[in-house]
Each structure stands twice: as structure tokens, then as C-alpha cells.
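C-alpha cells incoming
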């Protein structure tokens, strides 16, 4: 790891000012992902702005919104009693993430901004368009088991790793940002970008922007939700396939549904056509199968990850069957 400067910010506005006037700087809080990236040489920064002591770590829940500060720790959010009742999918996604030690340190903002687990990206000796634009994507013709089958481009097929982002995508959350021009909120559906020809640009954020919080609308649908994560081992492992599902039934007929997927897309994946295939219909195995087919219709599997097409269909069936009481 090469030498870098370090400044402790006094408040959010101070943090943004420091980042705006300091070239090649970034924010650090828990550091559970950033420090590993810097140590491995996958990311290089000349200056770190420590935001860990800022007062943007609160969790507030009222009749309309869940508001979580960007510096709230993953464990605190996952174990919040009101949140667990009103937004079980959020709590389950966080508890399925990382390890207890990491959840004690890692922040909500940091979780949303964690980088892909693609081994080529994290190995500076390998070419990677996300790390070094124009150098190529060896995963396309190389090892691709953990990579995406949806949202891929000829420049990148890496998956986004955050479980929380998948849950928030299903619930139509908003990400609150503070930048040099002031505060703004971005729908999470617009927050993550497809790789296209510029995979190094992953979000709608600017380099000086700080995540100050996440807002999630409180609905009856959200209370009937769950997160299903399929992975290679039971703990401290990233999703091979995951599903965030929220379901509202009346007389066995789907009144409303929200679905988002992890492990299969270059960003947290939500497809309105999948939800439309279920809405207004009885929740039957045939309806779930039709929705699954709609999901993978445009999948672009590679040699090592073709199995994900069938696995995500099974995961969707399992999540909806559990929520719908079909088992």
C-alpha cells in the first residue's frame, strides 16, 4: 500500500469540502472493504477523509418512512426491533451479509458502495475495464462462475455484491447524498449504473458526494417480505443467487409484489415484467414459473455460470412459496 494523506472531518459539509479540494481523495468510515482494496492495489487514493465520527448514524422509523443514517452500523440496523417487524427483508439481508465482526464495523453507506468481488478486478496483475478502462475483461472468456447473467456488456460482467442494495431495490428506497452543490436524493433504481462501455462508473454519485442516509417508504407490503440468499457456505460468503421479495395476497391472488435479485446482475436487478407476470393472478406454481421465465428471457450466461439461470428460477419459487404459504 502506498502512502496517503488523512484528515478527520468535523461535520458532513466539512467532509465534502475536503474531498472537493483534495485530488484523488475518498471517504472512509469502517474501512472493511476500502482498506483491503487499497492494500491489494485494486484502488489507489492519495487522501482519505475520515467520516466515522459524523452525526449521521441514526435510525428513525415513523408511520411513513424508515430513515437510516449513512454511518449507521450494519449490526445496529439489522437488530433494530421496529425495523425487523416493519422491514424484515432489510434485516434479513443485513444478517446474511459478511460476519458479525464486519457487521459491527461496516456502515450502511459503505455497504452500498462496496466493490465487486470479481477476482480479476481485485488482482492488479490482471486487466480489468472497471479498474483500468480499456484494458479488457478477462472474465468474459475466463472464470465467470460468480459473474452476472443480466445487464452484461462487452466491457464488464461483474456482479454487484451488496445484499442490502438488493433489499432496498425491492422496496423503492432513496439514497440521500450531500455534495458540493448541496443535498439531493436519488431513487435507488437510478443509483446503480449498468456497465455499458464505462464500467468504472458504477453509481450516480460524484467523487465528492457523501451518502448521508437511506429513506425507505413504509408500506404494508414491506412487512410481508423476506430475503433468500443462496451461497457456497453458510457464513461470510457472497450470494451466488439471492431474492428480495415482498408479497401481498388477497384470496390467494397477488395484489402487489416487489422482486429484486442479487448475484445475477451487474447491478441489483429488478425487472417490472417479472412483477407484472404475477400481479393480479393466483399465486400458483404455473404463475411463478411464468415469472421466472420472464426474468431470464434476456439472460446472457457464460461458460461457468449457466447454472444460475435455473438456480434463480428455483430461488424465486422458494421465496414466493414461503411468503404465500404454499408450503
Amino acid at each position: 500500500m502506498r502512502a496517503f494523506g488523512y484528515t478527520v472531518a468535523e461535520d458532513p459539509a466539512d467532509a465534502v469540502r475536503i474531498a472537493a479540494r483534495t485530488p484523488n481523495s475518498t471517504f472512509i468510515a469502517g474501512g472493511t472493504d476500502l482498506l483491503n482494496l487499497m492494500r491489494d492495489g485494486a484502488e489507489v487514493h492519495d487522501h482519505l477523509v475520515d467520516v466515522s465520527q459524523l452525526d449521521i448514524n441514526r435510525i428513525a422509523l415513523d408511520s411513513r418512512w424508515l430513515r437510516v443514517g449513512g454511518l449507521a452500523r450494519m449490526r445496529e440496523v439489522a437488530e433494530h426491533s421496529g425495523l425487523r417487524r416493519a422491514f424484515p427483508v432489510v434485516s434479513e439481508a443485513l444478517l446474511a451479509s459478511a460476519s458479525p465482526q464486519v457487521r459491527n464495523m461496516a456502515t450502511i453507506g459503505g455497504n452500498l458502495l462496496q466493490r465487486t468481488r470479481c477476482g480479476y478486478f481485485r488482482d492488479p496483475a490482471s486487466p480489468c475495464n472497471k479498474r483500468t478502462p480499456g484494458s479488457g475483461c478477462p472474465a468474459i472468456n475466463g472464470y465467470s462462475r460468480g459473474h452476472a447473467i443480466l445487464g452484461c456488456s462487452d466491457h464488464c460482467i461483474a456482479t454487484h455484491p451488496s445484499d442490502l442494495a438488493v433489499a432496498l431495490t425491492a422496496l423503492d428506497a432513496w439514497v440521500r447524498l450531500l455534495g458540493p452543490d448541496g443535498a439531493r436524493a436519488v431513487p435507488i433504481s437510478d443509483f446503480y449504473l449498468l456497465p455499458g462501455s464505462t464500467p468504472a462508473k458504477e453509481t450516480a454519485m460524484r467523487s465528492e458526494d457523501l451518502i448521508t442516509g437511506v429513506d425507505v417508504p413504509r408500506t404494508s407490503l414491506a412487512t410481508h417480505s423476506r430475503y433468500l440468499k443462496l451461497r457456497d457456505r453458510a457464513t461470510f460468503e457472497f450470494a451466488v443467487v439471492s431474492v428480495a421479495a415482498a408479497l401481498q395476497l388477497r384470496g390467494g391472488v397477488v395484489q402487489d409484489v416487489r422482486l429484486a435479485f442479487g448475484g445475477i446482475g451487474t447491478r441489483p436487478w429488478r425487472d417490472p415484467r417479472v412483477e407484472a407476470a404475477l400481479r393480479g393472478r393466483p399465486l400458483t406454481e404455473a404463475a411463478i414459473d411464468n415469472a421466472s421465465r420472464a426474468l431470464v428471457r434476456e439472460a446472457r450466461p457464460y461458460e461457468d455460470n449457466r447454472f444460475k439461470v435455473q438456480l434463480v428460477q428455483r430461488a424465486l419459487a422458494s421465496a414466493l412459496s414461503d411468503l404465500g404459504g404454499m408450503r
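note: The mean pLDDT is 97.
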